Amino acid sequence: MHNTDIDEAIYNKYIKPTKRRRRDYAGLEFELPIVNLKKQPVDFSVVHKLTDAFIKQFNFENVKLDSNGDIYSAHLGINGDDLSYDCSYNTLELSLGVESSLNVLHERFLDYYTFIQDFFKPYNHMLTGMGINPYHTLNINEPIPVGRYRMLFNYLSSYKRYDGIMPFHSNPNFGMFSCASQIQLDVEEAAVPEVINTFTKLEPLKAILFANSLWGSNNELLCSRDYFWKNSMHGINTHNVDLYDVEFDSPEDIISYIKTMSIYCVERGDKYINFYPVPLEKYFKSDKITGEYFDGEKYREITFKPEIEDLKYLRSFKFEDLTFRGTIEFRSVCEQPVSEIMAPAALHAGLIENIHELTERLENDRIIYHNGYNVRELRAIFCGRSFPEFIDKKELSKLMTDIISIAEQGLKKRGRDEEKHLSRLYERAESLTSPARQMADGLDAGLPVEYFIDKYARVV
């Protein structure tokens, strides 16, 4: 397969959809841990009852069934909303279809969330706003029995075959208890490089604001999302995960970068096939690839020929992810406490409106940058509990407050009274306290985890 064919396929999938005027629409995804308050595994029979009741209450349809006949996904056609379970039945995902108003999306979320909490309450179950399921060690962390999730877990579990090539963690089931808050925003072709470059520079500060996934024997990681993806099979090729370590000048640069990403799965007929990750350019020039698939009883080896249509199976886990919809999906944020669940969306929506101001502020920064650390190192530092010696905390608070103000001005340009969702972020910036830092300090002081399960589940 020629390079021009590969470039054209990548262009058509990722760049062509951006060749239109940007709309100020947003789509949101909330992944929320399900908690059994009896300190027992999540009861999947209760989850399935909730699904049936939810579909009936809100007239969802287009259901998808797992191999046991249980519903794991449903859709509402009038607005594009989805109820689904992410990787396992321990995590409920609400995806909200595109709207021009964040407030409209928030109202829909609250309707769904209130119904779900009310349904769960008699069964001693609940949702909470955390980036790690607080009872993950108690739960049955097994994939939903469908081809896609079975394949993904098999792929992530294959890390043991490659021991020594990188420092893998031993939690291939991390997707079954790790939860994110994601937003997709439209972007025009000419703006794509600046949006990716600038929001990449913002990532260290986002770690300070939005960390909410405690991990480690001493809760030393406040934001563990980076660690789980980077130190898994996904991270064998660093271009598939984490931050961009290059800057883009043009859409052609982005195409070149995407060619260096690796593909690890495809479908052939009814078979989901996974294999050792192969960079796209090498993959499409290969005569054959050997992988494995589940035949219903065990995994079998299979050899297949790559096809250009396989590009649709490329899985990127970048923090700023250009999609086939002409959007950038921002995916580095832990799920937030429910009372503040709209804050990340408001920040991103406001900043993309004021992207040039944000670019200038970060390019001129000397508070975190120009101190001997690159953006990847800074993000890693700020995912932990300790601030480095060179940081002046008062100046850091001012920098973060300035950036939130830039977002607020951007939201005012949108004219939809969305800036109210930023109010708590000003408090976080002033105190340099994230939900995870607050929780870690509280646990150290003797507060039980149940205090935070309840606190982070509250609507107000």
Structure description:
By secondary structure, the protein is an alpha+beta fold. It has two domains: about 10-255 and about 315-455, Creatine Kinase, Chain A, domain 2, CATH 3.30.590.20; about 260-315, no CATH class. The chain contains 15 helices and 15 strands. Strands 1, 2, 3, 4, 5, 6, 7, 14 and 15 form a nine-stranded antiparallel beta sheet that branches. Strand 11 and strand 12 (about 300-305) form a beta hairpin. The longest helix is centred in the last third of the chain and has 22 residues, at about 395-415. It is globular. The N and C termini lie far apart (about 55 Å).
SSE order and pairing:
Layout: H1 3-15, E1 26-36, H2 44-58, E2 61-65, E3 71-76, E4 81-85, E5 91-99, H3 102-120, E6 125-127, H4 147-157, E7 181-186, H5 192-210, H6 225-230, E8 241-242, H7 251-260, E9 262-268, E10 271-279, H8 280-284, E11 289-294, E12 299-304, E13 317-318, E14 320-322, E15 327-330, H9 343-353, H10 355-363, H11 375-382, H12 393-414, H13 423-431, H14 435-444, H15 449-455
Parallel strand pairs: 8-13
Antiparallel strand pairs: 1-5, 1-6, 1-7, 2-3, 3-4, 4-5, 7-15, 9-10, 11-12, 14-15
Helix pairs in contact: 1-7, 2-3, 5-10, 5-11, 9-12, 12-13
